[in-house]
Design goal:
single chain; 150 residues; alpha+beta; four-stranded mixed beta sheet; three-stranded antiparallel beta sheet; elongated
């Protein structure tokens, strides 16, 4: 099963589309047929439109929201490295979705920490220290998020 980005689904079906829904596509088409909360419902909704048979349906895509997925991944992170991966996924998803990371839903000031005392990394290229563990810190530099020694 392939995926369809939430922004593309909303462009075709409107703002009521939610991640986790499914969309049915005809073979070699540039437009989707219908939405559903399950793959079977997407197929049935396509057939209900009329003029389409089950054989006309070429694929079913899951609608995804990579920004929201990355926010959830950050909240569930159990290590600093896992959090760093989630933050990188989040920034990439925001970039691809044309969303400013400051407004995409991840509260950098409320990121989890993983032990050790609060630390602020003082270097010329560090804009902010967002999280830490006993030995490292997740920092924001001019052009990236990275892990540095404490």
């Amino acid at each position: 099963m392939d995926t369809m980005h939430i922004k593309d689904a909303r462009r075709q079906f409107g703002d009521e589309v939610m991640p986790g829904q499914y969309v049915a596509w005809p073979h070699e088409a540039t437009y989707a047929l219908a939405l559903g909360n399950t793959p079977a419902e997407a197929i049935e909704n396509s057939l209900a439109i009329g003029g389409v048979s089950r054989e006309d349906i070429g694929s079913i895509d899951l609608i995804v929201d990579p920004v929201a997925d990355a926010v959830a991944k950050a909240a569930a992170a159990k290590t600093l490295t896992a959090l760093w991966d989630a933050v990188e996924d989040y920034v990439k998803a925001c970039d691809e979705s044309l969303i400013d990371p400051e407004h995409g839903g991840l509260d950098f000031q409320d990121l989890p920490t993983f032990g050790g005392e609060h630390v602020e990394i003082k270097r010329d290229d560090v804009l902010a220290t967002w999280s830490w563990d006993e030995t490292h810190a997740l920092v924001q530099t001019d052009d990236a998020y990275t892990i540095v020694p404490r």
